[in-house]
Design brief:
By secondary structure, the chain is α/β, with parallel strands linked by helices. Helix 3 packs across helix 9. It has a single domain, classed as 3-Layer(aba) Sandwich (Rossmann fold), CATH 3.40.50.
Length: about 280
């Protein structure tokens, strides 16, 4: 007896999606890079929207420190591959999914295969892995694949959309790759969330960029999921609605503040340069 029925499983989407749009989601392929802080939740949410094909990646294993925010982090998954755990969980949502797993992560040797046949990339790689972010976004730009990136920040999120019509990764973030990793990460974070709402309440002493440490909480990650996956679905169904960088969106649920802006010149913007100097002093880097 067949238990799963695609049409019934996702029938409540109708009215938000049409029958034709639901079919497009079923036939779409989404690459989700990273299965940790937000990536696992991205994957499950996309599957519940009815997306039928995925390329997923992560080289890491679950540990106790992941419990406060990561979808697949449970006592039963400690020490297990994040890709393996999330593969099992998402197939329990839709056993008809087609999934290609990249357990070694993403680098120059497999980026072509990872993006093969992909309609949209959702970037959930650990924020500190700037080289990987740059590799993926540049590769998507070359292939005219839209990419969505959200950064949970306190009880809020900063979100960017990359398309071939927007600024390039390097032009927007203006990173000095000869500088220390801390300075690169700081500058990239300012570009992801120009509004800086989280700075009003996040304790700066909890941030240690040299140790790759920054606070994160589940509600901020869930907020990122809702915003990022909505844009990923629009990339498939209504791509003309996407607003690529230097457009940005910042929302903080604690402060109930939303800012949708256009960061002229990206991080080369004079105000951004001023913020960078202030942030360096605040964090002593």
């Amino acid at each position: 007896m067949k238990i799963f029925d695609y049409d019934l499983a996702f029938s409540r989407n109708h009215g938000i999606t049409s029958c034709d749009e639901q079919l497009r989601l079923r036939n779409a392929t989404v690459a989700v890079a990273g299965m940790g802080g937000v990536g696992g939740d991205y994957l499950i949410t996309l599957a519940r929207a009815g997306v039928g094909n995925f390329n997923i990646s992560d080289f890491d294993e679950f540990e106790v420190a992941n419990f406060n925010r990561q979808y697949g982090a449970m006592v039963s998954s400690i020490g297990r591959s994040k890709v393996d755990v999330m593969n099992e969980l998402v197939l329990d949502v839709n056993p008809e999914l087609n999934i290609r797993a990249f357990k070694e992560g993403i680098d120059e040797t497999n980026i072509d295969e990872f993006l093969k046949g992909v309609d949209v990339l959702v970037d959930a790689v650990e924020f500190f892995e700037i080289k990987t972010h740059r590799l993926m976004i540049n590769a998507c730009r070359e292939r005219n694949i839209p990419a969505i990136f959200g950064v949970p920040l306190g009880f809020g999120v900063g979100m960017l959309v990359y398309t071939a019509k927007g600024m390039s990764f390097d032009d927007y973030f203006d990173l000095d790759y000869n500088a220390s990793e801390e300075l690169q990460v700081l500058k990239m974070s300012l570009g992801c969330a120009p509004a800086g709402f989280h700075l009003k309440y996040v304790d700066p002493s909890s941030v240690d960029l040299s140790k790759r440490q920054a606070p994160s909480i589940a509600s901020g990650c869930k907020l990122a999921t809702g915003m990022v996956i909505t844009q990923a679905l629009l990339a498939i169904l209504h791509p003309d609605e996407l607003k690529p960088i230097p457009h940005y969106t910042c929302y903080d649920a604690r402060l109930n503040r939303l800012k949708k802006g256009y960061l002229w010149m990206g991080n080369r913007n004079p105000v951004q340069k001023l913020k960078f100097g202030v942030a360096r002093k605040l964090l002593n880097i």
